[in-house]
Structures are given as C-alpha cells and as structure tokens.
Amino acid sequence: MIEMPPLQFADVNGIRMGYYEAGPKSDKPPVILCHGWPELAFSWRHQIKALSEAGIRVIAPDQRGYGATDRPEPVEDYDMEHLTGDLVGLLDHLQIDKAIFVGHDWGGFVVWQMPLRHLDRVAGVIGVNTPHWDRMPADPIELFRQRFGDKMYIVQFQDPGREPDRIFGSRVEQTFDAFMRKPVARPAGTPEEQPIAGVGASARLNLAFPQMIANYDAKHDPRTPILSPEEKQVFVDTFAKTGFTGGINWYRNFSRNWQRSEGLDHTVRVPSLMIMAENDAVLPPSATEGMERLVPDLEKYLVRDSGHWTQQEKPDEVSSKLIEWRRKRFG
Q1: Quick one: which of 129, 133, 86 has its CA closest to 104?
Q2: In whole angstroms, what is the distance from residue 158 CA to residue 146 CA?
Q3: Which of 70, 86, 105, 280 is catalytic?
Q4: Which residue intervals define the domain AB hydrolase-1 in the entry (predicted)?
Q5: Phi-psi region of 97 (alpha: psi -120 to 50; beta: other; left: phi over 0)
Q6: What is the band of 197 on the pLDDT scale with cuts at 50, 70, 90?
Q7: Following DSSP, what letter does each residue of 316-331 receive, concatenated?
C-alpha cells in the first residue's frame, strides 16, 4: 500500500499547483520537498511519512510542469524566477513565514537559488545530490556541447522540434524502467566519475538519454529496479497523461537563467546540509568540492551504496538524516 496525504491545490504565481501536506501545522519551520526530473512529489513519499510521524510539518509540491500542477505553454515560464517564485507563492498560500527547502536533482538547483533570491523566506537549505555552484564562466549549453558533444541530453533538450519530448512521451514505461534502477556498483579502487560544474558526469557515462530510451529493453538490464510495480505505475500513469515537455522546459532555460543571474551574489547565508550519494554518476560527491566557499554554514553527509535516486533508494537513511539535522539546527 502506497501512503500519500490527500492532494491539495493552491493558486500561486499565476498557476494552480498541486501539493501534499502532512505533520502538525504548528511545527516551525516546515520542510518543503522539491523533486527533480523526471519525478513528482510522489518521489518523497517515504520522507513525507517519516518526517510527519516525527512531528515535522512537511509539504511536497508537484512543481510547475509536473503531475497535478499546471503546465504553461511558454518556455520562459519555466525559468528560475518562476520556479523560485512558485515556492514563495506556496508559502504565501499556506501563510508560512520561512521554511527549510530540500531539493533533489533539478529541485536541488531551485532550492539553492531560494536564499539568493528570497532570503527572508528561507530558514535553511538541504541539497540531495545537487551541489551549489558559482555562476558558470560561459553559457552552460555551450560548455556542455564542448565537453560532451551534441548528443548530451541537456544539449538535445534545446531542440526546438522537441524530439526528446516525443521519444520519452511515446515510451513512458521504458523511460521509468531504464532510469529508476540502482547503478551497477563500482569495483573498489575505480575512480569516481569526474563532474563538470553545473552538471556532473564523465564522458564514460552515456549521456544520450533520448537514444538510450529509444533502444532500451528491460529484459537485458541487469540492474535492480528501485520501484515496486505499483510505485512505477504511479509515475507511468502520470507522465502518460502530462507528457515530459513541462519538465524538459526547465532545461530549456539553462542559458536564460545564466544570462539573468549576472551580478547575483551566489553566497548562501542560511544553515545548509549537503547529502551526497556515493554512486551517483551524474552528480557525484566530487561535484561538491569547494562548496564551503559559497556556503559557509555547511554540513556534508555521504549516503553510501546509493545511486542518483537517493531518497527512494535509501529512504530510511535520508529521512533519518533530514530529521536529525532539522532537530539539531532548529530544535
């Protein structure tokens, strides 16, 4: 049985946002859980249950373009101003002054931006796998293209013809079968994948995700699935209905976000926790090196034997760490 609180809706920042809430309303500061791509608030099901049972107020939205939340047409409606503005709007709707923002994958990029743009609404930040970096020295899409070539998925996602959206959208079950698995463990002594600022991953990793999905056959995949058949069906049913364009539009704003962040002070001035996953090939622990310069009040924690989907691969460990850090820092 999959446990999720009832779905609720809020009108925020020009869209209708679906969200889930649990735990005592009196608890302050509450915890806002922000998912990545291609995911949903449902990705935090284990943490919603554990944190609320520990007496912590927890809120998990389907973010703009995903699940029960609106999917506006214009690509620019998915830039960082909109994504952070949605979370401020959610706080306003719930009459919350400040919150601790937790983000995994793309949600991590968003929550690290919250204290840069809306400091008065942020009590603390927790990045899960996604580190906080300084502004890149050049347009990130050009850097990705130089480093990884035109087939790298973020470069492909810039395609105005939206071919990647079509590939994923016509193979929804294949997409989640392929992505939501534990990585093959690295033999001892193997060097970690070397990251690139703004996105991890080495050239050894196949980053041509659309082609990988187009040619994928689960029968030949030796990796262990993370999701039960029932859990996988939640993702498949939702994305079959919504498609992937909303989430991919976040990637289509990499250059715009970079241009518009010129002059923004990238120092994070709130208590912060960085949860790293030992075997995440795209956002490896080495990607967090030097974060302390930009995040002076930082604790780091390594989840061993976990790949990219950390809060679903190691739910108890991640939940325990969130609860422990929250109590230590906020009582």
Answers
A1: 129
A2: 15
A3: 105
A4: 29-315
A5: alpha
A6: very low
A7: HHHHHHHHHHHHHHH-
Per-residue pLDDT reduced to its tens digit, 242-252: 999 999 999 99
Closest among 223, 232, 267, 256 to 119, alpha carbons compared: 267
- CB atoms near residue 193 (< 10 Å): 21
* Six token digits for residue 277: 């996953």
Domain boundaries, the chain: 7-330
Nearest-angstrom CA–CA distance, 246 and 78: 8
Helix (H, G, I), strand (E, B) or coil at 19: strand
92 labelled catalytic: no
The span from the CA of 256 to the CA of 309, in Å, is 27
**Is 308 a known active-site residue?**
yes
User: In whole angstroms, what is the distance from residue 299 CA to residue 143 CA?
Assistant: 29
Confidence of residue 196 (pLDDT cuts 50, 70, 90): very low
Which of 182, 179, 277 minimizes the C-alpha distance to 232? 179
Q: Which amino acid is at 285?
A: P
Give the model confidence (pLDDT) of 43-77 as tens digits: 999 999 999 999 999 999 999 999 999 999 999 99
| DSSP notation for 145-208 | HHHH-TTSHHHHTT-TT-HHHHHHHT-HHHHHHHHSBPPPPPPTTPPPPPPBTTB---TTS---
Structure tokens at 191: 């060097």
- Name residue 212's amino acid: M
Indicate the DSSP class of residue 275. E
Q: The whole model's pTM is what?
A: 0.94
State yes or no: pLDDT of 202 exceeds 50: no
Rounded CA separation 295/133 (Å) = 10
